[in-house]
Queue: 3 jobs
Job 1
Amino acid sequence: MNGNTVSVRVRGDFACFTRPENKVERVSYPIITPSAARGVLEAIYWHPQFSWVTREVHVLAPVRTFGLLRNEVNSKMSLDRREPYFADEDRTQRYAVCLRDVDYLITAEARPRARSAEPMAKHRDIFLRRMLRGQCYHRPALGTREFAAEFGPAEGSPAPLDWTEDLGLMLWDLQYPDGKHGPEGWRPLAKPPYWPLFFHARVDEGVMRVPEEPIGGRP
């Protein structure tokens, strides 16, 4: 750890960190993924000069699951659609295995992007001030947008669970290829437009440590 790291406590009544191998019905990982943790921090404070890199996740509450049956639509409405779209005629029921009463302590590092001359300590301090005030650009979510997250300082957090388990492969992040902008919009130079990266996840005494690179290294 260095002076660019921050810690934030994140809690919520419900969460769902979907496994990418499940196509239709969602099944959650037992713990928040590094990319979902990064999304929480970016909701509090984001800046183009740096990116958040998740280093550790402390599990502060027992893992509890529940089933949820909800109505979803099969397709997205297109902006070019000339015919009216009636969502009630395109609904289907899908089952999801979610988490409840989650509580995490996330430790992340502010890592500068290329050609960034600003000191990372500046952005770290801005993040800490916004976190203490409860400020955010948009409400952080725990996997899906309808599962809102509460956040606050790490001080006073309980000790991690007495839990050690090999979780196997877990989503590390999504890799997006380079693209270009033209009159018709953004065009990817490679297909698919993104692909998942994984790492071998393990929880030791309630702490999951995230490696610097995924399995196989960065593409």
Note: The chain has two helices and twelve strands.
Job 2
Amino acid sequence: MTAATVSVCGMIGWVGLVVPHLARALVGPTFRLLLPASVLLGSTYLLLVDDLARSLGPLELPLGVLTAIIGAPCFLYLLSRTGRGWS
């Protein structure tokens, strides 16, 4: 499902990969709190990145470029943190 979402939405799909993990780190695994936290964090993240993309310079950067630049290091950090128990 993740591959299909990224192929349809583009690099904005990073939001769907990273934000729920960050929300779980903030509010815990209780789904009653996790879903609203993910929605609020994801929408806030995209609004901030969109504002940044529009205000960086004379040319408007594609939103997928900034989400990838910001999301990839976060995803790698989360992957390295959760992968400690793997052999």
Note: The chain is about 80% helix and 0% strand.
Job 3
Amino acid sequence: MSDCNHDCGSCSENCSDRQENPGIQKAPMNKMSNVKKVIGVVSGKGGVGKSSVTSMLAVAARKAGKNVAILDADITGPSIPRAFGIRTKAQGNEDIILPVETKSGIKAMSVNLLLENDTDPVVWRGPVLSGVVTQFWSDVLWGDIDVMFVDMPPGTGDVALTVYQSLPVDGIIIVTSPQELVGMIVEKAANMANMMSVPVLGLVENMSYFQCPDCGSRHQIFGESHIDEIAGKFGIEKVAKLPIDGDIAKACDDGTIEDYSSEEMEKLYASL
């Protein structure tokens, strides 16, 4: 590009002169932590159930006997503490922050665990938001973790770029809904992951259908699914389709997501 400053680390353009990971250093992890696998959960837009899918995947991993953590990188719209019914605040000192554990032993860190009130708005600019994410990675004493799920904010902005560049992300799960417009947005998320050399491990289509409790027939409330076409286009083999289920929303609202069992999410986690 004619106006290129050759700082590929601050640019999202996929031009012919782009250098992969030019001098980008991953954020350091504190010496008392060891995270073996990092999986980002992303969505191209809000309102598709990304945080509930993150929560259910974490619960599935915990049921499989893994040491599990959730880093809530959705700084301006944190949902993880509410879904797990976490009411205590994170503790720490100038050097280290202790994550809060859920009732089943999942370790979690979210900005809402640091705010005085859950409803206090986070009115910060992009660089500050990104700094908080790297601080959650480096300054939290995670301990020995088999798999960490990173609940990322919707879209392809500053925080998503920070996660890809600063954390050792092994792959991502993209969450979407059946609307045709969403297909384009999913492709944006997949293209960003490819640009950052991060594999897409799977697709989750939330609210894919409604199954009648009386006759058992399935109804596509939000239109025909296109998830299989998108998966084929990007060579993604693992696809999960979640039904419209009021029990999921209620579990997240009540803070009892650990009591909800999702066979689809357990199958997806087992295949990762």
Note: Residues 18-23 have pLDDT under 50 and may be disordered.
